[in-house]
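Need tokens for this chain, all 154 residues.
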Amino acid sequence: CGAMPYMAPEMATGGPYWPHSADAWSCGIALLEMAGGLGSLGQALKVDLEAPPASIAPALLQFFEDPVSHAEALAAIHGVDTITVIEQLEQILVPNWTDRVVLKNLLPENQPGAEQELLQHEQQRLLEQQQQQQLLQMMQMGQAPNLQNPQAPR
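Here are the structure tokens for all 154 residues:
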């Protein structure tokens, strides 16, 4: 289960163990510490993270209830304010374990609508590749391409 603050607060207080939720919390703390600097959370929280887990967990839960806490913790040491990281932290470091994002859903390709967007991107890529091949064939045959309408050979 790990040590605080990487241990999910609900586990530190004897609550349920839900692997996806607990892992998300741990990854969120790791992201916060990597992006903001080791000790960012402790600096922002102003709590001794070496104290017994059951005494730290309520402070963590209360801290992350505040909507600006993620940005505050991220900026505590190095003044980092990267919106992308803050958005990720806001989805991961959520006090209620049932509201935490499933980590795989943080990846752009797993977000709603992403499949359609990826398909459109791939279709556009294939069309551009086909046009390049046609242009190359025309040049090899000594034909000048029609720049007004790249689809129509001369």
